[in-house]
UniProtKB/TrEMBL annotation:
Enzyme Commission number, as recorded: 1.2.4.2
Superkingdom field: Bacteria
Pfam entry (one): OxoGdeHyase_C
Native species: Macrococcus hajekii
Single Gene Ontology MF annotation: oxoglutarate dehydrogenase (succinyl-transferring) activity
GO terms of biological process kind: glycolytic process; tricarboxylic acid cycle
Higher taxonomy: Bacteria, Bacillati, Bacillota, Bacilli, Bacillales
Descriptive protein name: 2-oxoglutarate dehydrogenase E1 component
Enzyme class: oxidoreductase
Length: 918
């Protein structure tokens, strides 16, 4: 450990500074206005003299001792059940460290420690002893980093009140039974399913009764929905004892029989299932329960192996539960739902998604009114001890930068664990802020139950193997207290084992279910049929007028006014509707149809390319105005937020939001499409595959700016190839459009299928230079009727055609532009608007018009090893019926594009000219 790990606290009076300064000011004005003790103290400090034989330096030392105890007492606390670390270079934490005697402290008033202690203790010595008991026990507190004085004072007063919960005999027995169920379940599986992976909770068993207390306190505070996110360790136990998944269901999963046979018939437990499935310790569920005094729902989110990645998903689910989207803008009630995020001690500081997620906690568009974080700290990550896995003293230190209270608690002191939950819930309800609990325990076995941990962590596991499990430890404590006899304790353990064994015997081992076919459900396989998405012209014009009407006295930025006024032209002067305009018209009609719209991204209010202007600023006052929140006939809300500079957490949040509110048109927009690289794990592990793995459905929409315009490798490609590589089983729609009316219809089609069994995500490669291109902009007539067109083909004379060019997005418009300049009847351009699912029938119908001598050319801007080529070539080969297929585009490259703009122009021009050459 570094020698500078700790440093002395300055003489800053801790949380009492404000109080002492106020008293000092009163003393200056009128010495008799403060207590006699304070008069003596301020007299000494101002004169450099002494009081009761103590000089000013000694009084300062007393104050610094008090401050150090509050700030650093946790370093000497009993917060480790075993394998206690050796602390070096500790701050001064005893009177002797400051050359203070008991007599010195007895001469000072208890009010010097805290005004609240003035009536409870006779002097500072007694008060300091009280602080030692509070701050150096099985609970360690960290709060000095919090900037908000009100929060600090609340924490100090709550902590120093020192009243630990006094549990009744029945409450103690209930705790013991809870722990016995937790341990009994783990021990039964360990004995009967030898070597099976389960990621045991043993060592941090207290988590389950802590969650039970969360549910009870949530019920008392009328919080009816609790969203839980966690990785693998302890997950099966949480499913069993918090979501009340029957033992038979859980055991049947170990036996590969059908667990749904044991699903409660009352419908209280919902378990979704995908057709390819997932391992049991990734699965979640939803439980309706009255166990804690009122009707509540607790949900455990499905989670892949990417540990902490579920955190923002749970936050998004929680926010969706809190938002009432029936009005013009969402109304948030933080007591409709709360989030509980359970972290690993190695993962919490190690995975960047946590930093991004913590940063969301106090942002308007993402706050959830205070999330509860519990770190199940087993002191080792896989095989790595803490000194190899983090640069901080505690796993929780990263939370200090976000002003979150941090409490460390010994996982073997179950009653202390419950007290910590009580405090955390009170803080959440008082301040609507996050709270972090470091539940410090151990891990009974290796990373999984087939692993031998002593190979890599021998000293730790010498202690673990000799350490009693918590239900034995707590049971013996209760026996010593006279709460129950040892025979009664053992009977509790036996009854639980018998209960699990009975469930096990109820399973028919011969009824194994092994579905190797894994057929896609019919509703998914059928895809999304075309629907009419046109909107009456009168309705569109009224909507447009609403969006261009502002409150009295509101003055938009003068240069923007002319741009916005041109949005009247398509209705007044037969002008064209550009991209941003088409999008806002689509969103307006969607909320009029009763589907809320939520759009976020790093610059989404204005639009990265100044194309949207959904939120306007008054140039004189800076006031904001969002026209879509004020349109006539809206039956649902419009919500838009500029997001933080985050991709992974924000995309995860939006995914979670749409999971919980499947009726919402939830849209995330990348600043540039390639920025989505930073959220790739969300696309891989959730959006593309969640339905197949877990039966988890979403209709989230992704807007990814994509096109080659000479802006270099990181501002050209949205990595279209990745979304196409992940495309299978109708899991999403991937589009690259060339028409604003087609964009309008596609958004409305996406909204139409929300909250249905045909809902699926939508990935759109949105334009940059095409945002204002007149060939892309379309007249109002194309918005008032029709539907989304997966391909766009102009009229052609089939007897003259020698080449069919297929292209998407900007390169298709590049080809179209050249053909407008120099028409050529020998070339037909097929603008492929929807890449996946590939519109085979529409393409086949075009190709069938031509003889085998016709060449089919696929044109793309991306290098040959990227883009759509490798995806589409085998599909075109099936449709070509012997016709020649040729590739036009960049050669294979490791980088998405060239960096020099002039070189780009040469390469791009060559692609277009080669493609148009017969």
């Amino acid at each position: 450990m570094n020698n500078n790990q700790f440093e002395e606290a300055p003489v800053r009076f801790g949380a009492n500074l404000g109080y002492l300064l106020e008293m000092a000011d009163q003393y200056k004005e009128n010495p008799t206005s403060v207590t006699e003790e304070m008069q003596a103290l301020f007299s000494v400090l101002s004169s450099g003299g002494s009081v009761s034989g103590l000089n000013a330096e000694k009084i300062k030392a007393v104050i610094q001792l008090i401050d150090n105890i509050r700030q650093y007492g946790h370093l000497k606390g009993d917060i480790y059940p075993l394998y206690k670390p050796v602390r070096e270079n500790l701050p001064k934490l005893t009177p002797e460290d400051f050359n203070l005697t008991q007599s010195d402290l007895e001469q000072l008033p208890a009010s010097l420690v805290s005004e609240e202690m003035a009536g409870k203790y006779n002097n500072a010595f007694e008060a300091v002893n009280h602080l030692n008991q509070i701050y150096m026990d099985t609970i360690g507190y960290e709060m000095s980093h919090i900037n908000n004085a009100e929060e600090r004072d609340w924490l100090k007063n709550t902590i120093e009140a020192g009243a630990r919960s006094t549990l009744s005999k029945d409450e103690k027995l209930a705790l013991l039974k809870s722990l016995a169920h937790v341990e009994g379940f783990e021990k039964y599986i360990h004995k009967n399913f030898v070597g099976a992976k389960r990621f045991s909770i043993e060592g941090v068993d207290a988590l389950v009764p802590m969650l039970e207390k969360v549910m009870a306190l949530a019920s008392e505070n009328d919080i009816q929905n609790v969203q839980v996110g966690m990785a693998h360790r302890g997950r099966l136990n949480v499913l069993t004892h918090i979501l009340e998944k029957p033992y038979a269901m859980m055991l049947s999963e170990f036996m590969h029989t059908d667990p749904l046979k044991f699903l409660p018939e009352d419908g209280s437990l919902e378990i979704t299932k995908g057709w390819t499935g997932d391992v049991k310790y990734h699965l979640g569920g939803t439980k309706k329960t009255t166990r804690y005094g009122s009707e509540q729902i607790v949900e455990l989110a499905n989670n892949p192996s990417h540990l902490e990645i579920v955190a923002p998903v749970v936050l998004g689910k929680t926010r969706a539960e809190q938002d009432d989207t029936s009005g013009h803008e969402p109304e948030q009630n933080c007591n409709r739902a709360m989030a509980v995020l359970i972290h690993g001690d190695a993962a919490f500081p190690g995975q960047g998604i946590n930093f991004e997620s913590l940063n969301l906690s106090n942002l308007d568009g993402y706050s959830t009114g205070g999330s509860l974080h519990i770190i199940t700290n087993n002191r080792v990550g896989f095989t790595t001890e803490s000194y190899d896995s983090r640069s901080t003293l505690y796993a929780t230190d990263v939370a200090k930068g976000y002003d979150m209270p941090i409490v460390h608690v010994n996982a073997d002191d179950i009653e202390a664990c419950i007290d910590v939950i009580i405090m955390a819930m009170k803080f959440r309800q008082t301040f609507n802020k996050d709270f972090v609990i470091d539940l410090i325990g151990y891990r009974r076995y290796g990373h999984n139950e087939m692993d031998e941990p002593s190979v890599t962590n021998p000293m730790l596991y010498k202690e673990v193997k000799a350490h009693p499990s918590i239900e034995i430890k707590y049971g013996k404590e209760l026996v010593a207290e006279g709460v129950l006899t040892e025979d009664e304790m053992n009977q509790i353990f036996k009854d639980i084992e018998d209960e699990i064994r009975t469930a096990h015997h109820a399973i028919d081992k011969s009824e194994q279910v092994l579905d190797s076919e894994m057929h896609v459900p019919q509703s998914v396989a059928e895809g999304q049929p075309d629907i009419e998405t046109g909107v009456d012209r009168t309705r569109l014009e009224q909507l447009n007028d609403n969006m261009l009407t502002y409150p009295e006295g509101f003055t938009p930025f003068s240069k923007l006014t002319k741009i916005l006024e041109r949005r009247h032209d398509p209705f007044k002067k037969e002008g064209l509707v550009d991209w941003g305009h088409a999008e806002l018209l689509a969103f307006g009609t969607i909320i009029q149809d009763g589907k809320p719209v939520r759009l976020t991204g790093q610059d989404s209010e204005r639009g990265t390319f100044a194309q949207r202007h959904a939120v306007l600023s008054d140039e004189n006052s800076g006031d904001k105005y969002t026209p879509l929140k004020h349109i006539e006939g809206a039956k649902a809300s419009f919500d838009i937020h500029n997001s933080p500079l985050s991709e992974a957490a924000v995309v995860g949040f939006e995914y979670g939001y749409n999971l919980q509110n499947k009726n919402a048109m939830t849209v995330w927009e990348a600043q540039y499409g390639d920025f989505s690289n930073m959220a790739q794990m969300i696309f891989d592990n959730f959006i593309s595959s969640a339905n197949a793995k877990w039966g988890e459905t979403t209709g989230m929409t992704l807007l990814l700016p994509h096109a080659y315009e000479g802006q270099g490798p990181e501002h050209s490609s949205a990595r279209l190839e990745r979304y196409l590589q992940l495309a299978a089983e109708n899991n999403w729609t991937v589009a690259n459009l060339t028409s604003t009316s087609n964009y309008f219809h596609l958004l409305r089609k996406q909204a139409h299928y929300l909250n249905t069994d045909k809902m699926r995500p939508l990935v759109i490669m949105t334009p940059k230079s095409l945002l204002r291109n007149t060939f892309v902009s379309r007249p109002v007539t194309e918005f008032t009727e029709g539907h989304f067109r997966p391909i766009i083909v102009d009229d052609y004379k089939k007897t003259k055609v020698k080449k069919v060019l297929i292209a998407s997005g900007k390169v298709a418009i590049d080809l179209y532009t050249e053909l407008q300049k120099a028409p050529n009847d020998e070339i037909v351009l097929v603008r492929l608007e929807q890449l996946y699912p590939l519109p085979e029938e529409e393409i086949q119908a075009v190709l069938n018009d031509f003889k085998n001598s016709v060449e089919i050319g696929f044109v793309q801007e991306e290098p040959q090893n990227q883009g759509a080529w490798h995806y589409i070539y085998p599909e075109l080969e099936k449709l070509a019926a012997g016709k020649t297929i040729k590739y036009y585009g960049r050669v294979k490259r490791s980088s998405p594009s060239e960096g020099d703009n002039e070189v780009h122009k040469l390469v791009q021009s060559a692609i277009i000219q080669n493609a148009l050459t017969i």
